[in-house]
Design brief:
- By secondary structure, this protein is mainly α.
- The chain folds into 3 domains: about 20-70 and about 440-665, no CATH class; about 75-300, Rossmann fold, CATH 3.40.50; about 305-390, no CATH class.
- It is about 60% helix and about 5% strand.
- The strands form 2 sheets. It has a 7-stranded mixed β-sheet with strand order 2-1-7-3-6-5-4. A two-stranded antiparallel sheet has the order 8-9.
- Helix 17 (about 410-420) packs across helix 26 (about 710-720).
Length: about 725
């Protein structure tokens, strides 16, 4: 929010300077063409109209400061919001569990117990009311949920090494707590902890509220009242499951530990996941443990249990003989295989690369089975082709968990390696599609801004130059056309710089059941428009007045055109703002996924563009028509020219205005990357296919690699690419 405010202040300052330059240029052109007296008249008119924003903006600020604060949500609204959130969370993670095959054929039976490292956990008497005990197995999440509920403050840290099943256990606990949630218990919601910027949100509750509104737009539905997400968090009605403390940058982990202790009240609950070593370093640097929090760790899977699990995954009559590999694992005669199979990640890799494709398991019991790092790298190298080969595409809509198109192994690996490297594991694990533009080089971002300004500003200037075909062969007209092009291009190029930091918006164009929302949006737009739009309308009127003056029109024609342009703009923008506000209002079933957030932001961009085109066309045509009615004369080609100017200017206005340009920025940058072979043209379709294959996992509107080890492996492979061009 602070970055957005700074960006808009910069845009406003640049816009003010551009406007001042335009006005000075107009007066100079008039002085050169018509003399001092006419220039003085124009200067007086311009100064009066420029005074309107100076008077209205302080009134707007005063009106916002003295406006009545929104009423706090009622208890019934909060109870309904809790039920809505519980349903959305449960549905979301049940789908994700199926995509991740966490229960196929059965959950891996990892045993969990309290950590042996006393320095990681608070005093037992603060963690539990009686004797502290916490044991259970991943395939029996009900017992683990009961153990969690017995904790004094219901705070838990799940630790373990890479691939130990920390996130899997967090998801299993989340679903169990959601399914058995009592009315007085909070709603468990998973948040990627690496996304918490403690500098922007010093208090955990503020960040949780912002993430809830982003990940679950249904909480912003009009039926629930204002600021429901913040109220749920403040009143302890949300149980945050904070995944990945270890995924934060090294310098940030200790700060987050301190911020957690400062943010949590006595009644606040939480679940955190972290690798053991990273947690220990963070606690040591913070000089404290997480208050009243139990810390559990997994036991390594014994060879006998790992062997039994792999036997369960095998078909009754496997294509190849698995006896040597299973015997070597059971007897630990292949130490590398035993080490890899001691974690859930290792078992999943063996199953995905060997069992499901029906591959010959002989290498597992051979030389490769004696070297754990080599075996792990071998499995990660063969994971992508194995998943593509064993999950054929399907067009059946009922097949929700099958890819829609067959991906090429080589290009899939190249695209994912590019993303893994540029969303570097040292900084983030979140593949947020709206952040892809920000990961590119400054030179490419500058080129995208310039290209956006030229492409959008060009039609404005070209339509202006069409006046040369209508006998407006004057230096002022050419100067005005170039002015239009420059102003439109500068506005787009300047504001495009902030697009790389914007987050996606929400959009719902379904009219059924939302008529009341549209009526409220219209009323709100009328109320705010009385304060904000006269200033902008006056500027549009100036542009229309100058346009008719450059064409040699009389004073009454200029006046009619200016007033009509200002009035139609004032009314038209009100309708556009009401339409966009209505589209951004979510329903009670709205949940944000990577694909839905992509489509929603694209819809907002197209809606603004189309509305800008229509508004510009209406303003331009109405301006010409008013001039014709006043003077009693006019040419059709002049009307076409004026309408064309309004059309192209409206497009530029529609693209610049609004709060959400993430899709537009992403499309511009990924188009350039697609030309260079870094990413596919249909980026979101590709990411969705990778998710369906099981290479990615979804957490709200972001993707992550299925396992951090896969992320690390692909990033390392990209860095070692033999071609320097591949690493740019």
């Amino acid at each position: 929010m602070r970055r957005r405010g700074r960006a808009w202040r910069g845009v406003a300052a640049a816009g003010g300077l551009v406007l001042l330059a335009v006005c000075v240029g107009i007066v100079a052109i008039v002085f050169q063409a018509r003399g001092l007296q006419e220039a003085a008249n124009v200067a007086q008119l311009v100064s009066v109209l420029l005074a309107i924003p100076a008077l209205t903006l302080p009134l707007i600020a005063w009106w916002r400061r003295t406006g009545h604060p929104p009423r706090p949500p009622a208890s019934a609204d909060l109870a309904r919001a809790e039920d809505v959130l519980t349903g959305l969370v449960a549905e979301q993670w049940r789908t994700e569990v199926v995509l991740r095959s966490l229960g196929d054929p059965a959950p891996i039976p990892v045993r969990w117990r309290l950590t042996d490292r006393a320095e990681l956990m608070d005093h037992p008497k603060l963690v539990a009311s009686g004797k502290l005990s916490f044991t259970g197995r991943s395939d029996q999440p009900a017992d683990l949920a009961k153990a969690f509920r017995r904790l004094r403050r219901r705070r838990l840290v799940i630790t373990g090494g890479p691939g130990a099943g920390k996130t899997t256990l967090a998801v299993q606990l989340l679903l169990e707590l959601a399914d058995t949630r009592a009315s007085d218990e909070p709603v468990p919601v998973l948040f990627p902890l690496a996304a918490w910027d403690a500098g922007t949100y010093p208090r955990l509750h503020d960040w949780l509220a912002a993430r809830l509104e982003q990940d679950y737009p249904a909480l912003n539905a009009a039926e629930l009242g204002p600021e429901v997400a913040a109220a749920l968090v403040r009143r302890g009605r949300v149980l945050p499951v904070l995944d990945g403390l270890d995924e934060l940058p090294d310098a940030a982990r200790a700060n987050v530990v301190t911020a957690l202790n400062r943010s949590l009240a006595d009644r606040d609950q939480m679940i955190v996941t972290s690798r053991t070593e990273e947690l220990g370093v963070a606690l040591k640097e913070a000089g404290d443990v997480l208050t009243a929090t139990a810390v559990i760790a997994p036991q390594a899977l014994k060879p006998q249990i790992a062997t039994e699990y792999l036997q369960t995954c095998l078909p009754p009559r496997p294509r190849h003989d698995w006896s040597p590999a299973l015997k070597a694992l059971r007897r630990s005669t292949a130490p590398g295989l035993a080490e890899v199979a001691s974690t859930p990640l290792g078992l999943w890799l063996i199953r995905s690369v060997y069992i499901i494709p029906g591959a010959d398991p002989a290498p597992l019991a051979g030389e490769l089975g004696g070297d754990a790092p080599a075996l792990r790298a071998h499995l990660l190298d063969h994971l992508i082709p194995a998943l593509i080969a064993t999950r054929p595409p399907s067009d059946d809509p009922a097949e929700h968990f099958r890819p829609r198109h067959r991906l090429d192994t080589h290009t899939t690996r190249r695209y994912l390696a590019y993303l893994a490297y540029h969303f570097h594991p040292a900084t983030t694990r979140d593949l947020a599609w709206w952040r892809i533009a920000g990961t590119t080089s400054p030179r490419l971002r500058l080129l995208a801004r310039v290209a956006s300004g030229v492409v959008v500003g060009l039609p404005v200037g070209l339509v202006g130059l069409l006046g040369l075909e209508l006998d407006f062969k004057t230096v002022p007209w050419i100067a005005a056309s170039l002015f239009l092009w420059s102003v439109a291009g500068l506005a787009i190029g300047r504001t495009a710089g902030s697009w790389f930091q914007e987050t996606p918006g929400h959009a719902d164009l379904r009219l059924r059941g939302r008529i009341g929302v549209l009526r409220r949006a219209i009323r709100a737009s009328v109320g705010t428009g009385l304060m904000t739009r006269p200033a902008l309308g006056a500027l549009i009127g100036i542009a229309a007045w100058v346009q008719i003056w450059l064409a040699g029109g009389p004073v009454n024609e200029r006046l009619a055109a200016g007033l009509t342009a200002a009035l139609t703009y004032w009314l038209g923008v009100g309708a556009v703002q009401a339409l966009i506000q209505w589209a951004e209002q979510p329903t009670l079933t709205a949940v944000s996924t990577p694909r839905s957030s992509w489509r929603a932001d694209r819809t907002l961009t197209l809606l603004r563009s189309i509305a800008g085109l229509v508004l510009g066309l209406v303003v331009g045509f109405a301006t010409w028509l008013a001039a014709v009615l006043v003077t009693g004369q006019g040419q059709v080609d002049e009307g076409v020219l004026v309408s064309g100017l309004g059309l192209t200017a409206g497009l530029a206005l529609g693209l610049v205005l609004g709060r959400h340009h993430a899709w537009l920025a992403c499309r511009v940058v990924t188009g350039a990357l697609a030309i260079r072979g870094r990413l596919p043209w249909r980026l979101m379709s590709f990411l969705d296919e990778a998710h369906r294959l099981g290479l990615l996992r979804a957490v709200g509107p972001i993707y992550q690699f299925r396992h951090a080890e896969l992320h690390d492996h692909l990033a390392t492979a990209y860095r070692r690419s033999p071609s320097p061009d591949d690493r740019s």
